[in-house]
Amino acid sequence: MVIVPASDLSGALARTLQALRAERGWSLDHLAARSGVSKGVLVALEQARSNPNLATLARLSDAFGVPVTRLVDVPAEPEVRVTGPDQSRTLWHGPSGGTGTIIAATEPPWAAELWHWTLMPSETHGGDGHAPATRELAWVEEGMLTLTVAGTRYQVGPRQCARFPGGLPHTYANEGSQRLVLTMIVVVPPAPG
């Protein structure tokens, strides 16, 4: 997996945010209200003066109704696009070495994101729900996933898949003693009018 330099990520995000706002005719105040990201943070992002975190990218992705990859990558989308490790983006780094890497995504109106996650023992990711109609699939390759959705905990083991509404608050946790490896698909609904 390739880790993209923060300056490249910030520049791509700045260009894309400006373009998406212009396409929709949204002000910074409108985007701030729609995404829950403060106007000050949005200004810094659009001026490429700030490195976004995954939670901010997810909120902006939900607000625009586009996959996270659209925010950080701007190439034209051919009919068939084959990508490799050099196009993936590691957007989350856990305190014990875990990673959350977006592999690829389809384009709107119904966008799907393909993620690869490694959570080391005691690492947790998540919290807020995405847009209301978002759906998620999580397939465990190794280890034991403790998935909490709207306050209810589920244990998902190797070769098991959990499907759930991603619009609900949810967390992924590794409460075991071995690393947890999972593949996730996030299906993002079209942005409302």
Multimeric status of the protein: single chain
CATH class of the largest domain: Mainly Beta
**H/E element sequence:** HHHHHEEEEEEEEEE
Number of helices: 5
**Spatial order of the strands in the main sheet?**
1-2-3-10-5-8
Layout of SSEs?
Blueprint: H1 6-24, H2 28-35, H3 39-46, H4 54-64, H5 68-72, E1 89-93, E2 99-105, E3 111-119, E4 124-127, E5 135-142, E6 145-149, E7 152-156, E8 161-165, E9 170-173, E10 180-188
Antiparallel strand pairs: 1-2, 2-3, 3-10, 4-9, 5-8, 5-10, 6-7, 6-9
Please explain how this structure is put together:
The protein is of the alpha+beta class. It has two domains: 6-72, Orthogonal Bundle (434 Repressor (Amino-terminal Domain)); 85-188, Jelly Rolls (Sandwich). It is 26% helix and 32% strand. It has five helices and ten strands, in the order αααααββββββββββ. The strands form two sheets. Strands 1-2-3-10-5-8 form a six-stranded antiparallel sheet. A hairpin with a 2-residue loop joins strand 6 (145-149) and strand 7 (152-156). The protein starts with 5 loop residues before the first helix and ends in a 5-residue tail after the last strand. Residues 1-6 have low confidence and may be disordered.
